Amino acid sequence: MRRDGLHRIADWGARLAAVLPAGGRLLAAGNGGSAAQAQHLTAELVGRYRRERPAFSAISLHAETSSVTAIGNDYGFDHVYARQVTAHGRPGDVLVLLSTSGRSTNLITAAMAGRAGGLRVWALTGPGPNPLAEAADDALCIDADSTATVQEAHLVAVHLLCEGFDAALAGPAGGAGHQAAHRTVGAHRRAS
C-alpha cells in the first residue's frame, strides 16, 4: 500500500473516532468476498479490535438477509443497499463500500443514496478510476491485477482502519489523536 493510501486510512480512522463516540454509526456493504471484508470491519467496531473499549454502532447491510431479499424482490438487486442506507443512515454517519471492481451497481447506488443523505461515503476498490470511487467522497483504490490481491489489500486496509480508529480514540481530542492514528499506521507499515 502506498504512502498516500496509509495517510488516507489514518484520516478515516481519526474521522471515525470523532463520529462513532458521538452517537454516529458506520454502515458497510460489499458483494461476495467484499461482503465478508465489510462484515469483518463492523465486527471489529461492535466488538473490539485489540484493546477493550466501548461497543460502537456498525451495521453490515448485506447481513440483513430478510431486508436484502425483500428489497431485491420488490425493488431489484441494484437497490438492496441504497434502501437500507436511506433507512439507517443519518447525516454525519459513515458508509464504507468495498468492491474489487468498483463497478457493482448496487454499491454505486448506495454511494449516491449515502451522499444524498449527508453520510460520508468511503470506497475500497480495485484499480481506479472506477465508478464507485467516483461516486464516493473518498476512495482507496488498490492497483492490482487479481481479485485475490485486491481483497488481501482490503483486509490490511480494514485492520489499519481499526488501528487508526483505536489510536485516535485513545489519544487526546483533536490533532493529537489524529497524529496518533498516523503514527500507528506508519508503525504498522514499517513492521510489514
Automatic annotation (TrEMBL):
InterPro entries per record: GmhA/DiaA (IPR035461), SIS_dom (IPR001347), SIS_dom_sf (IPR046348), SIS_GmhA/DiaA_subfam (IPR050099)
Gene3D superfamilies linked: Glucose-6-phosphate isomerase like protein, domain 1 (3.40.50.10490)
SIS domain location: 16-175
Protein name in the entry: SIS domain-containing protein
Organism: Streptomyces glomeratus
